[in-house]
C-alpha cells in the first residue's frame, strides 16, 4: 500500500466513523472473507461498522465468523439503505466498478460517504477517494492483511479474523496453486495460522462438503463438456432446465470450470450457465500460461477479472452464445497454441 494512501486512511480512521463494507454481487470466499475480517478490525478499533452484501452467498461460506450479522441488500433493503445514508465511510472490497454490485449501485452512488477501494482486479474505476489497487496480489484478503499491517494492527488480528482471511486466500488461489500465489502469500498464511486460522477445518468446510444433488450436477456438467484440441480449449454448458433438475443452489457450480484445465494439453476452460431469471448466460473463464482471459472477457463478454481467471455474461441464447464463442477461437489460435 502506498505511503500516501496509508497516511490518508490513518487520518480518515483517526476518529470514530460509521462504516459500511460492501463485497461484490454473488460474493465468493475472497469477497465475503475480506469484508468480514475488515469488519472485525474496524469494530476492534472503535468504529461502528456493518457488512452489506448485494445478495445472498453460498451455504458453504456461511460457517465464517460474523456471517450472521451480514445485511442482505435484497432481503433487508430498508435497513441497508438507511445504513448507506448515514455512513461516513464506505469500503468496497474485491471489486472496482460499482456495476459489480447490481441493484445496490444506485443507493451506493447516492451515499455521501468517503469511499475506500480495496481490490486486485484490472482497470479500476475512479470512484474512491482512497484506492488500494494491486493486481499482483493473490486475493483481496491478502490485501486486507497488508492494509491492517500498514495501519499497525497486526496484534489485533483475532482467530475469527484469521479464519476469514485464510478462507479468502485459499479460495482465490485455488488452494495455493495459481501463479498469483507468492512467497509473501505463504508468509501471510503462516501468520494467520499462528493467529488461530483452522486451516484443515476451513479446507473441509469449503472444498469437502457436498450434497448428492451437487455431485449429480457435476456429473451432468462433465457429460456436457466439449473438448476442442485444435484450440487447446474445453467448455461446459449448463441449461436452466439442467440446473432445476439437479436442485441447483447458489454456489453449486463453484469450481466446475476448472475441470477442463485438468485435461492434458488444455489451457483454456470455460463454463456457460443459463440464468433465466436474469435473462443472461453467466460465463466463467480460466486459463493457464500467458493467455489472458481478462482481456478475452472484456473484449467480447462485458466482463473481466485476472489474467487466468475472469467472468462475463451474454444476453443471447445458450446456442447463440456458444456459437459466438467458438467463432472467436480461430483469431486467438496462435496465442492458445503458443
Question: What topology does this entry show?
Answer:
Blueprint: H1 3-12, E1 18-23, H2 29-44, E2 48-53, E3 71-72, H3 77-86, E4 89-93, H4 105-109, E5 114-119, E6 130-133, H5 140-150, H6 159-172, H7 183-194, H8 199-207, H9 212-223, E7 226-228, E8 233-238, H10 240-245, E9 268-275, E10 280-287, H11 293-300, E11 304-305, E12 309-314, H12 318-329, H13 333-337
Parallel strand pairs: 1-2, 1-4, 2-3, 4-5, 5-6, 8-9
Antiparallel strand pairs: 7-8, 9-10, 10-12, 11-12
Helix pairs in contact: 2-5, 2-6, 5-6, 6-7, 6-8
Give an overview in words.
It is globular and about 60 Å long. The model has no long low-confidence stretch (mean pLDDT 97). By secondary structure, the protein is an alpha/beta fold. α5 crosses α6 (159-172). It is 38% helix and 18% strand. α2 (29-44) links the parallel β1 and β2. The chain contains 13 helices and twelve strands. The chain has two domains: 3-207, Alpha-Beta Complex (inorganic pyrophosphatase (n-terminal core)); 212-337, Diaminopimelate Epimerase, Chain A, domain 1. The longest helix is centred in the first third of the chain and has 16 residues, at 29-44. It starts with a helix and ends with a helix. It has helices at residues 3-12, 29-44, 77-86, 105-109, 140-150, 159-172, 183-194, 199-207, 212-223, 240-245, 293-300, 318-329, 333-337, and strands spanning 18-23, 48-53, 71-72, 89-93, 114-119, 130-133, 226-228, 233-238, 268-275, 280-287, 304-305, 309-314. The strands form two sheets. A six-stranded parallel beta sheet has the order 3-2-1-4-5-6, with helices on both faces. Strands 7-8-9-10-12-11 form a six-stranded mixed beta sheet.
